[in-house]
Amino acid sequence: MSEKESVQTLIEMIKQRDTQALVDFYQQSDINENIAQLKYLYQQAIQDQAHYQFFQDLVASFLEHKPLPTALIGGINDIEKLTFFTPALSASEGFSLKNDQGSTILHALLSQTKAAPPPFNYIRSLLLFERNESLATALATRNDQQLLPMECYLAFNPCFEPLAAHELTAALALLEAQIKQVPSEINTLRLICNHLKNNAHFDELTSSSHRIILLGAAFECPSEDVMTLLH
Asked: Highest taxon of the source (predicted)?
């Protein structure tokens, strides 16, 4: 069955509202078909808000029985996608899954190339109130570049705009939670600074920039020391 045919079959089965039959079909489908099916359900949820909960619950049922295809990890890279997939990821320990680069969803989300700040407050809320063990595991996972998710944000995220006060507070709390699990290493600070030097907006950074303040908090050193490393 082609990916297009698998989605068409899914559509026909959705009309019957037989969740178990849908779960069985998802389990029997191959990985490429699963990717197409999950993308379709996400797009339908966004377009049809009246049935958003139905599509979200269906995806949660799918992932409880078969893990998220790792090829999709890099695609959950904004708050809209994260919000939709959160119940499914929480139910299936999906936040700790890794792709071929050793990255979790948090790595992909926090190092996104879009010029917008990550949803630190949303992630912190999930960590605090959902008791999400796979999220805590992801926060302490190094990828193949030997970077933790928050370190990926510090190194690669292109948005140097000041964070809203509640987002800055949340980012600091996530760094604290990360450090409790994995002690910071000064060599990693040097690596992050080298990556930042390649950023098109590097010249905008000052000792009062939130990115520099967060780097200082992550590696427990004054902002001036970070600026010295950068220059």
From this structure: Bacteria
